[in-house]
């Protein structure tokens, strides 16, 4: 069996290692450059690879192709492979049959990293033999090849879900759905929504789907389509006989006729959106019958995720917050909504078809100045130009942070929450966040 892996990054190299271990004839092809550390791994493991090109005769003879999530379906080589009738799958689909572990699959437009990390934190604290995979840390395939976990908590992007055929998580979470990555879905929001719901398409009556009961796109899909999974809703406003909700400043979770309650003030994560993330993670913990005391302790000591509303420093009584992971409008909505002081907002980057008007009321209420950090800021300037007192364009992080310092007074907040991808000026949202933190420390 010949396995061709497109993309020599984390998921590609992980898949190659697992494929080799399972006796496949493996070839890795990357149209760009392969990082030095990944090349070494491929060489040590005796896996054939190429970079800077896709050689058709080495690719089109595949029995199965694993496509890394970053490669779009419309790329020429992927079209050619599909025309030949060769199956193109994602890393998760490839790796799942090679492990007997239970998987928890977490997807959504926002909140999935925090929910994934929090769920992992809860299960690990309970002493379970649990791995963390997907978009975070070591790839799922790599861990299946090298580790023996009983449970995996996997963060799943829509791109990974597009490439599944038979994979099903025992517990699925959809945190929320809002327009994102529409450039990959022919600018059709429905295509993106359907992609997220692939997480439940193979689930049976034995499985669970945890979801935001007040999310319009989710509820509309569930009204029109069927899933066999047992539904576990969560909500800030509605109550359930089976599900999670907030009542009188208490989080209540009812699953299998058992109740769990905890004062929301003891939950370490701040903000309404994080109460939702906590309800989702706690629902998983209760399905897996983790002790209530362990859950309470874990929720009260969880530290949060880097680049997600991360408090960096307070300088001259101005709080600097790194929310570089906010790569869409919906994320920024949560961020601005949780601001309690006048805010200087650093925004911009590669726009993925954003509608900034959704932020208008929050910007009017909370934002005193906007700093545009991107190559093309026209859209942001058009929408907010007449709304804030001060609008500035910069093309590097040092200038953005220095300008922000000039525009603030005591008691203000500087918020990096870009609403965009980072690839015009930075390598990744992590790179953007780290540069922000460094620039703040240099003030």
From TrEMBL:
Its main location: cytoplasm. GO terms for molecular function: ATP binding; UDP-N-acetylmuramoylalanine-D-glutamate ligase activity. It is found in: Cytoplasm. SUPFAM superfamilies: MurCD N-terminal domain (SSF51984), MurD-like peptide ligases, catalytic domain (SSF53623), MurD-like peptide ligases, peptide-binding domain (SSF53244). Its EC number is 6.3.2.9. The keyword Cytoplasm applies. Keywords: ATP-binding, Cell cycle, Cell division, Cell shape, Cell wall biogenesis/degradation, Cytoplasm, Ligase, Nucleotide-binding, Peptidoglycan synthesis. Gene3D superfamilies: Mur ligase, C-terminal domain, Mur-like, catalytic domain, NAD(P)-binding Rossmann-like Domain. ATP binds at residues 108-114. The keyword Cell wall biogenesis/degradation applies. Pfam families: Mur_ligase_C (PF02875), Mur_ligase_M (PF08245), MurD_N (PF21377). It catalyses: UDP-N-acetyl-alpha-D-muramoyl-L-alanine + D-glutamate + ATP = UDP-N-acetyl-alpha-D-muramoyl-L-alanyl-D-glutamate + ADP + phosphate + H(+). Residues 106-284 form the Mur ligase central domain. Belongs to the MurCDEF family. NCBIfam families: murD. Cell wall formation. Catalyzes the addition of glutamate to the nucleotide precursor UDP-N-acetylmuramoyl-L-alanine (UMA). This is UDP-N-acetylmuramoylalanine--D-glutamate ligase. It comes from Flavobacterium laiguense. The lineage of its organism: Bacteria, Pseudomonadati, Bacteroidota, Flavobacteriia, Flavobacteriales.
